[in-house]
């Protein structure tokens, strides 16, 4: 089984989709959750993970220099021997101190085409610009902001989506399906790099 370290800063709906996929979905017999980690000890997603029986860990990032925090977070995560580090609403830009130990094994999900929109508030961007479609993107993480190689993309129709809440509802439904499926094919294709 591939060992997943799932990282989050907030709600944790993608984390939950991944956990469920390891239990009864496309990741069953392919992956297990080694740890759910947060840079915010009070993140709702961390409590949700614990309630679903996942090992959890937290290290507060507030007020800490980026490189110092990233080195400590990487060291903590390495104790769980993850094959993949799976960012699921982990709202931090990663420095090389974090990326180097897991290079080529860090995944992120972004609620837009990373060639068109980077960073926060991608659903607001799609809504405000009245896009008729956005593309959910799963990509490998490098040191840029949403610049790493794309692993999978799936379009979401935004036709008739009259509110931001509706845009998010449609997008998240695709996120929750695309992320486990992309990870499953990555594992099946033997691209585990350690
Ligand atoms: C998701 O929509 C995810 O794609 C996005 O944050 C949300 C987290 O929700 N990530 C980014 O915007 C990264 N740039 P969740 O905590 O319910 O999974």
Write the layout of secondary structure elements.
Blueprint: E1 2-8, H1 13-24, E2 31-38, H2 44-51, E3 56-58, H3 66-78, E4 84-87, H4 96-99, E5 106-110, H5 122-128, E6 133-140, E7 150-157, H6 164-188
Parallel strand pairs: 1-2, 1-4, 2-3, 4-5
Antiparallel strand pairs: 5-6, 6-7
Helix pairs in contact: 1-6, 5-6
The chain binds glycinamide ribonucleotide (GAR).
Glycinamide ribonucleotide binds next to helix 1 and strand 5.
Q: What does this 3D model show about the protein?
A:
The protein is α/β, with parallel strands linked by helices. α5 crosses α6 (164-188). The chain has a seven-stranded mixed β-sheet with strand order 3-2-1-4-5-6-7, with helices on one face. The protein is globular and about 45 Å long. β2, α2 (44-51) and β3 (56-58) form a beta-alpha-beta unit. The mean pLDDT is 96. The longest helix is centred in the C-terminal third of the chain and has 25 residues, at 164-188. It has helices at residues 13-24, 44-51, 66-78, 96-99, 122-128, 164-188; strands spanning 2-8, 31-38, 56-58, 84-87, 106-110, 133-140, 150-157. The protein is built from six helices and seven strands, in the order βαβαβαβαβαββα.
Summarize the structure.
This protein is an alpha/beta fold. It is built from six helices and seven strands. Its EC number is 2.1.2.2.
């Amino acid at each position: 089984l591939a060992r997943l370290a799932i990282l989050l800063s907030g709600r944790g709906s993608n984390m939950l989709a991944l956990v469920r996929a390891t239990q009864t979905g496309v990741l069953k017999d392919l992956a297990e959750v080694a740890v759910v980690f947060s840079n915010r000890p009070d993140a709702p997603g961390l409590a949700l993970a614990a309630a679903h029986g996942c090992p959890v860990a937290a290290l507060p990032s507030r007020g800490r220099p980026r490189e110092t925090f990233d080195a400590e977070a990487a060291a903590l995560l390495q104790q769980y021997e993850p094959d993949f580090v799976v960012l699921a609403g982990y709202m931090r830009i990663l420095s090389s101190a974090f990326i180097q130990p897991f290079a080529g094994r860090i995944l992120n999900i972004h609620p837009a085409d990373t060639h068109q929109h980077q960073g926060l508030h991608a659903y607001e961007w799609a809504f405000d610009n009245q896009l008729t479609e956005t593309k959910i993107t799963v990509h490998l993480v490098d040191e840029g902001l949403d610049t790493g190689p794309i692993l999978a993309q799936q379009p979401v129709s935004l036709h008739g989506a009259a509110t931001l809440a509706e845009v998010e509802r449609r997008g998240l439904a695709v996120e929750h399906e695309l992320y486990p499926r992309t990870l499953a094919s990555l594992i099946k294709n033997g691209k585990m790099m350690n």
